[in-house]
Amino acid sequence: MGHLRSGWLFYTRSLRPGVGTVIFQPVPWLRGRATPTLPIPAQPVLLLVASNVFMTLAWYGHLRHQAAAPWWVAALASWGIAFFEYMLQAPANRIDHTVFSVAQLKILQEVVTLAVFAPFAVLYLRETPRLDFLWAGLWMVGAVYFMFRPAA
Fold it and tell me: Per the CB 3.0–4.6 Å rule, which of 11, 66, 68, 88 could disulfide with 2?
């Protein structure tokens, strides 16, 4: 899978044919320290969860705190927050693409989005929880099944 050498996490083989070696550098304070490595599929999922927290805040956070502000203030604030989303999302997709197809990546992203958005809507935006959240989640479970099942 990969190994840590002076702060760099190297993946020396690809798990998907036709995709080159992935090199991922963790944060600088890890240099020289022995750190446990997560399996490749787990790393991008965690990055996608963090990315989606920023995305959801950028897209919907202004509805609670800047409702009276002009739209362009909300847009500028959202763009600033979205920068951090992309700093996590791009490496997540690059790492994940060594294991999953693009279609699988998209479904994974949607599941993570829904898993982050539902609690955000209820807890942060104070939306009333509805049974529709559960039904949407179950449809996503079905989508995951069809995208990740072995080819027939």
Answer: 11
Task: Please tell me the distance from the alpha carbon of residue 117 to that of residue 115, in angstroms, as a whole number.
Answer: 6
* Closest-CA residue to 46 (of 100, 119, 112): 112
User: Which neighbouring-strand residues pair with 5?
Assistant: 8
Joined tokens for residue 124: 């942060």
SS (H, E, C) the chain: CEEEECCEEEECCCCCCCCCCCEECCCHHHCCCCCCCCCCCHHHHHHHHHHHHHHHHHHHCHHHHCCCCCHHHHHHHHHHHHHHHHHHHHHHHHHHCCCCCHHHHHHHHHHHHHHHHHHHHHHHCCCCCCHHHHHHHHHHHHHHHHHHCCCC
Q: Is the pTM of this model over 0.70?
A: no
Q: How many residues does the chain have?
A: 152
Distance CA 19, CA 98 (A): 6
Q: Six-digit token pair at 51?
A: 């990315």
Kindly report, residue by residue over 38-82, the tens digit of the pLDDT. Answer: 777 778 888 899 999 999 999 998 888 777 889 999 899 999 999
